[in-house]
Amino acid sequence: MGVSGSGKTTIGKKLAEKINLPFFDGDDFHSQANREKMKAGRPLTDEDRADWLIRMNKLAIEEMNKDGAVIACSGLKEKYRTFLSGGIPGPVFGVFLKGSYDLIKKRMEERKGHFMPASMLSSQFETLEIPRESITIDISKSPDEIVERIISDIAEKD
């Protein structure tokens, strides 16, 4: 989890490949209306996110009833993370990709084809509640280093 531009998709795909689990990107589960709202530079409200949170939680439960999965989503608020992990039969490892505003803004300005404009980053940081129960990873490292650190930290907790 983390703000837009923190590397959730990049890291999630690499991690899933490394540990041989399916990867799902939370962005793919947003409604078209939510995507359009964000593209227009308007932050989502809790009400906007409600159906998305339900879809993400159902996905997590379905995948945990199989072998598990790597799921990337913002999870900006504690209540979102609590809802997302509710009813999941097994261990849930939250990973917070933490980076500075300046680093993430630079990355967002360089990426192409994403619906979330860099102008929305400040609202993401304003909404973000730093998780207390997650593995926190500094995103200034390379993606491969980040993935290795995640695997190591999960092994310690497991």
Concise synopsis of the structure shown:
By secondary structure, the chain is mainly α. It contains 7 helices and 4 strands. It has one domain: P-loop containing nucleotide triphosphate hydrolases (Rossmann fold, 3-Layer(aba) Sandwich).
List the SSEs and their pairings.
Layout: H1 8-19, E1 23-25, H2 32-39, H3 46-64, E2 70-72, H4 78-85, E3 95-98, H5 101-110, H6 121-127, E4 135-138, H7 143-157
Helix pairs in contact: 1-7, 3-4
Oligomer: single chain
> CATH class, anyone?
Alpha Beta
Mean residue pLDDT: 91
> Could you say what the CATH architecture is?
3-Layer(aba) Sandwich
Number of domains: 1
According to DSSP, the number of beta strands is: 4
Cα-to-Cα separation, first versus last residue: 19 Å
Write down the secondary-structure element order: HEHHEHEHHEH
Structural class: mainly alpha
Sequence stretches where pLDDT stays below 50 over 5 or more residues: none
Strand order of the largest sheet: 1-2
Apparent shape: globular
The CATH superfamily appears as P-loop containing nucleotide triphosphate hydrolases
Number of helices: 7
**What summary fits the major beta sheet?**
2 strands, parallel
CATH topology: Rossmann fold
Helical residue percent band: 40-55%
Radius of gyration: 15 Å
